[in-house]
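@here heads up, posting the sequence + SMILES for the S-adenosylmethionine run so it's all in one place. Ping me if the SMILES looks off, I pulled it from an old spreadsheet.
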Amino acid sequence: MAKTPDGKNTSGRGQRDLTVKVKTARGRTSSSTRWLQRQLNDPYVKRAQIEGYRGRAAFKIMELDDKFRFLVPGARVLDLGCAPGGWCQVAVPRVNALGEKKGKAIGRIVGVDLQEVEPIAGCEIHQLDFMADDADQQVKDWLGGKADVVMSDMAASSSGHKQTDHLRIIALCEAAAYLAFDVLEVGGTFVSKVLAGGAEGELQTLLKKRFDKVANVKPPASRADSSEKFVIATGFRG
Ligand SMILES: C[S@@+](CC[C@H](N)C(=O)[O-])C[C@H]1O[C@@H](n2cnc3c(N)ncnc32)[C@H](O)[C@@H]1O
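bot reply: prediction finished. Complex structure tokens:
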């Protein structure tokens, strides 16, 4: 019988396909009605509920890792902007953080976020702004050494202005890349969300200087109408 990441059974739940229609209500704008309707009918939102993941974002890292295989047993992983914890939940069994795959190396996961995160077995989670001065030393202390993987699904809070939001996320991503340069092991992998929109060229140039390969991917779980994509840089040169 299938289990959720928290060990609960999944059978018999969410088997019927019921499309939910949301009526407009007083005080709710038409865009929030559309958002709610999309959320209630999103197959990845339903799957996350059935399989016990904290959000649909879990499927993005699952699909990226199925393609690039960076979450391997024994890997040391730093998850930047980890709240509410979906990416960490996916990483736990894949890096064997709980030692459940006997005979395989045991990995380690450190998650950091500005927000508090409910504990996840197999992860060490800290409330931290990754841009803090000593963040690189702190994460190395928590990981017990350098990281094999630095992954970031960070998003700056939306300003409502597309171009401003794009520049903010690219700045966040560049800052995450500089942290990765400080904490990654040679040969390591950097995964980061970016928004397509014009300013990401410099980031690509920066990554190409420091990694053997840089790929841009839009996993199926990333909404088609969003400009979000993911950059996967492998083979850190140090
Ligand atoms: C889209 S959520 C991450 C979802 C997560 N990957 C998951 O699967 O649950 C983005 C997170 O980035 C965090 N974040 C944004 N800026 C940050 C910063 N400077 N330091 C740490 N976390 C940050 C936000 O607080 C937010 O929780």
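MO: Residues 162-183 form the longest helix (22 residues).
MO: One more: The pocket of S-adenosylmethionine is lined by residues 54-55, 57-58, 81-87, 112-115, 129-131, 153-155 (CB under 6 Å).
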